[in-house]
Amino acid sequence: TRELPAGYTMRPIRAADYDRGVLDVLRVLTTVGDIQREEFEAQFNYWFKHNDTYFTLVIVNEFDRVVGVGSAVVERKLIHKCGNVTHIEDIAVARSEQGKKLGLHIIHALTDIGKSQGAYKVILDCSEDNVRFYEKCGFVRVGVEMSLKF
Ligand code: ACO
Q1: What residues does each domain of the chain span?
Q2: What is the largest CA-CA distance in the chain?
Q3: Are the C-beta atoms of residues 67 and 94 closer than 8 Å to each other?
Q4: Any idea which architecture 9-136 has in CATH?
Q5: Whole-number mean pLDDT of the chain?
Q6: ipTM for the complex shown
């Protein structure tokens, strides 16, 4: 089923989500750092200005607290006849809310965004620990991720 559990809603991120716990949800994933409201709003405004490229969805509970988040970035290429690839990034569900299919709903919704933007594929990088989760979302393992960190 593609229905969220009762009491949960998915919607695009808003500037006001700064006060609704979105950064704490992302802390489940990685280091977020101390982000001031102005910095958050500047990033939000950039995404909003480029809203055919940056898509961030949140799931909120009945009290409008953010319990899940995920992003898609649409990359417009030359190959594949000027095709698009959609990258799924920064998926996180609050620890106490995991196992309720919220992650699955976020991935399905971001994948739909990719399709609606005309992407010929949707890709993501993840740790070995998350491979089963993404397989359950329909993804298959391809290639090797490499990185150069600064
Ligand atoms: N290993 C094996 N199976 C898993 C895992 C896992 N790590 N996580 C979820 N599953 C399974 C569930 O059991 C469920 O299976 P079922 O349909 O047979 O019942 C299915 O995958 C869907 O699970 P959800 O309930 O939708 O998963 P959840 O809402 O807990 O979200 C997530 C999964 C996002 C990985 C969450 O555990 C989380 O936030 N983890 C910490 C942050 C993180 O690692 N994020 C992903 C980083 S990769 C990236 O961002 C591209």
Answers
A1: 9-136
A2: 46
A3: yes
A4: 3-Layer(aba) Sandwich (3.40)
A5: 97
A6: 0.98
Strand 84-93 with 119-123, pairing: parallel
In the block, residue with structure tokens 């594929």: 121
Q: Is the CB of 70 under 6 A from ligand 1?
A: no
Among 100, 99, 98, 111, smallest CA distance to 137 is for 111
101: Cβ below 6 Å to ligand 1?
yes
Taking Cα atoms as reference points, which of 108, 75, 72, 65 lies closest to residue 88? Answer: 72
User: Running DSSP on this structure, what letter comes out for residue 3?
Assistant: P
Residue 68 Cα: closest atom of ligand 1: 39
- Whether 114 lines ligand 1, by a CB cut-off of 6 Å, is no
Is-contact 122 84, C-beta < 8 A? Answer: no
The tens digit of pLDDT for each residue in 55-66 reads 999 999 999 999
